[in-house]
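> tool_call: predict_assembly(chains=four)
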Amino acid sequence: MDTYSHNSKPRLLEVKELSISFLKQANAIDRVSFKLEAGKTLGLVGASGAGKSSIARAILGLLEPQAGEILFDGNSISKMGKHQLKAARRRMQIVFQEPAASLSPRRTVEQTLLEPLRHFDIGDSNSRKDKISQTLRTVGLNQEVLPRYPHQFSSGQQQRIAIARALITDPDLLIADEAVSALDVSVQAQILQLMQSLQQEHGIAFLFISHDLAVIRQIADDVAVMYAGQLLEYSPANTFFNRPAHPYSKALLSFARFDTAPELPIRPQPVQHGTACIYAGQCADKMIVCGRFEPEFHKIQHKKESHCVKCHLYDEKNTNDM
Amino acid sequence: MTDTALTTALNVQGLSVWIKTASGKQQIVDNISFSIKAGEATGLVGESGCGKTMTAFAILGMLPAAGATLESVAIEVNGRDISSLSSAQRRSVLGRDIAMIFQQPGTALDPVFTIGQQITAVHRRHNRSKKNKHRQAMLNSLAQVGFDQPDKIAAAYPHELSGGMRQLAMIAMATVCKPAVLIADEPSTALDSGTRALVLKQIKRLQTDHGTAILMVSHDLSVIRQSCENVMVMYCGRVLEKTDCQSLFTHARHPYSAGLIACIPQLNARSASGAKAIPGQVPAPSAFPPGCHFAPRCEHAASQCDLSVPGFLAENEQGNERGNERGVACFRPL
Amino acid sequence: MTNTHIAATGLPFIVRRFLHGVSLMLGVTFVSFLLMVYFGPDKTYELLGKNPTSTQISEVRHTLGYDQPFLLRYGNYLKELLTLDLGLSDSTGEEVKSILTRTLPISIALVLPGFVLGNIIGLLLGMLAAWYRGRWLDKLLMSASVVGMSVSFLIIIIGLQILLCTPYGLNLFPVRGWQVHDLPSYLYYVTVPTLALLLVTLGYNTRFYRAVMVEEIDREHILTLKAYGTSPVELLFKHVLKNSLIPVITRIMFSVPFVLVSGSLLLESYFGIPGIGLVTFNAITSGDQPILKAVVGLTGLLFVLALMLTDILYSAVDPRVTRQ
Amino acid sequence: MTHTTWQRLKDDRYGIGGLFIVAFFAVIALSVWAGLLGQGWSEVSGNRWESLSAAHWFGTNLLGQDIFQRTLFGAATAFEIGLIVTVFSIVLGTVLGALAGWYSYSWLDEVILWIKGVLDSIPFYLFAAAIAFALQGNRWAMHLAMIITFWTTTARIVRGEVMRIKQREFIEAARAIGLPDIIVVFRHVLPNTAHILLVQSTIVFVAAIKTEVILSFLGLGIQDGVSWGLMLAESSQEVLAGHFGNFVAASVALFIMLMGFNLLADALQDALDTQRVNS
């Protein structure tokens, strides 16, 4: 599946036909592919349990995929040697959903920030001190947080510390796994503002995972929609929010706008590989073919942006029995 | 009883709550008063830690934190004051006249009893009829929240259902005795957008079809705007503004309300500068500032705001035709 | 402790629990063989007189099988256990099997009332303390149980004996012996040992059950039940109790083997009651190997049975414990 | 022990009481080991069953030995047993528990749980007897028997806690930058179990002392020197003859020390509870 026009420089991150399964369940992630350019933000959207976090862990090398490949700057993570992987890991960091749970409770903020610097042996003891104070400033905190423990901060401050830890190695890719979902609206706004300025000033690429479409709207350049482990739609943000192609995307947007509500039962039925569209059970525009064949990805061309959707509606062959 | 008392499903007057903390007794709910008519929905909005959940529990006379104390002038459900009842009398009211649903559907139901057993128990407790009407009432209640095979759901254990389904089962339990008042504490926060819409739709149906008065507690203003007519904005234990949702979103009178609204990420517009955030953060109960609690974070604050506590200026009679309460607690409203 | 990890071997749950039990039994018998036979006392010199010749020594060693390879000796040791051919007691020469069958019922009769009462009263007090957490009743029960935990079993036994069985005290009960033929005589002999067992376990039980109950009472679904007018009695005895059955079952099932052997050991040796405890006591002090081996085998078996029974009870009590 | 836990411990009266008792007995134990106290425990310095007097504060026992000296020496013995058993069993339990928890549901976890199951199913007093035989009355047989069996409870608790902590995001963050497992376990996992180990140590200390009493009664306890267990075993005959000196001295001393440790354990539990990793 090729979702992009080609250019020479290898992309920062490329996920190709990624499949992950846990114990004996069906594939939690089923042949997912997407790309992320340097300095851009990809919003990974979908209901909880659609497998978004597993992709993040696979990219970080914490999960071994069953099939497919993850290319960072053109080379595959699972094939990387120890040093190459360490160098790659320096350039990609993650921020989690629960701020309190993402900081080691028995270690001070200073120790938490020093750890990545020592691990990747960045700079020496005094240059590290400057690096720490400079990073703290970028996330809107100051020196006196250093000797204190995580439980002495509000969740908003804890998330800023977690972001500082992720920034301190000057990463090119920052994965935000529901990074603002656990925060109050006003704190959420502060963190989103911080992430936007980080992107503009430092050119960091964001893989922003969230179930909240309004949050994605504020930060994403492109949007990828996941449902029960499969990628259903991939499109630039403006196109997605104004002219969603896939029925599931349309449903998600109308739920978010409180226009409609889904019918019961709402759990996705497990679908055998390749025998049907995974969203068929819930789909408002279901056709006969949707129940029998798995749709391919189809490209909808607007001007130069690429917009692909995995749905029989956009397959010319089926237009006759629409 | 005045006629408004007849149609008022829930009337809360002068409700305050104190909790015991390391640094002594702290007040976390400060003299809250409001009333909700049958078939009306009122939102109680505020950030985490503002005391909104504690208010909900205090209305039922339940204080989860050990060493917490509660005071109220009156808490009337259908005109009957439940705050002065003995615990046995209050138990006969809870679940029959006033019911509550919770934020975490995953942990709000007893894992070792089936959904059917738990709902039937509530009905049996409040209806002493001999025939097995209880099971039938449970099945009807499940059907009404949208389950097409209620008996399958009744036989299931909570861990066998998804989050959304558990919340719907919770609503079925809350409404099996057709209560006059339903308190919903963050009913959709733990759900994703699909199930959220479904749950809010069912709550709306209770309000319109059964005339249940709804008090919805949430930190999410867009959920409140969608499901409630009136809204109360709460901060550090005090209600800062009371109005209808329409007016709040068109012209919020209190700076904090305006700030909250500005923070909401808009679905259809990517604001260039990003959502405008409120500077600073919510203080802990032991560190509530004197005077108006929001003063330190408020751009419109004057010296007066730091010194004295703004009284709640209820607006004069020209409130909209349904005459519900409106007002703002601010020396310099917008 | 139970191995709640459900191996993804697809074997039915019961078979896997049985295999786990068998593996434990093998471990127990191996350790007991190692300690009591391999490193156990060498009986050759007992059978030989003074300064025996080397041939006599090797002859006796051969008859006793000491010269056989380690695994072979472990093999026949297992065979003996499996065929219940437990040999003869060194000290009395009586068949070990008959000793066990005679003394086990006495020990059970001795230990059961104290064990059952200790857990039931402990559970009730634990519930009370948990329900009134932080208030004076909770503090009273907790300090009482701290006292209970700080007193050694031996002190309780001697203290009760002075108090109840000697002229220095009330002198109502026998200081030794077990002439039991009907209920009154049973009560006459069992009261003081039961009281001792009760006093020593009540402290630990109350604290344990209180901790379990406190954890259950803090769960969110209890708040829901309160919000729907559930009475405290129904809340405690229906919901809280059923939710805490797993830790309760675990504690009861796994203390059975110990109370039956270790508990009875002290009580019987002190009160002169001819149960398995007294037999084990004498076996320890006189180094009677066959008895020790048999008792270890018996406890191992009891432990494994307790293990398997617990798993079955778990799934009966808690629907979340599914048996993939 | 962060600053706030110390404050919380300080205003817990019982906790401070417990700490004082433990310190008091620690001082006695140290002075006995240093040879300042309780050296005359074995001398026959009086005749049989002398009652309390200036020369013999607690009177004398069957052989005419001074009970007060023996009680002091008993305190040192109790402390020695408690310390040795606690240190070794906690360390062993933590290491094996952490391994089983970190590699949970692996073959290593299975093996450790199997060993634990085997040891848990052997009646302790028989096990101690068997070890005593195997080591032919070696002075450390009792300690070894206790260490080999006491580590299992600590291992079970540490395993559960490590499995819980292992899923927390701050562990994933550490592994995401490629920190080796050993560093993650020792820098991020184990410090968060410290509070449990502290409480568990006091509990094991109490268990060790109480077990020694029973082992001495069975003749498997202390081989050289005297312990409260031995004194209680001696007293079991004397009591019937009406001589309570030995019994009262040993049981009261034992009771006070155990109360001290139990109160301390409770206070530590409460003080450290709020510090725990908030689940």
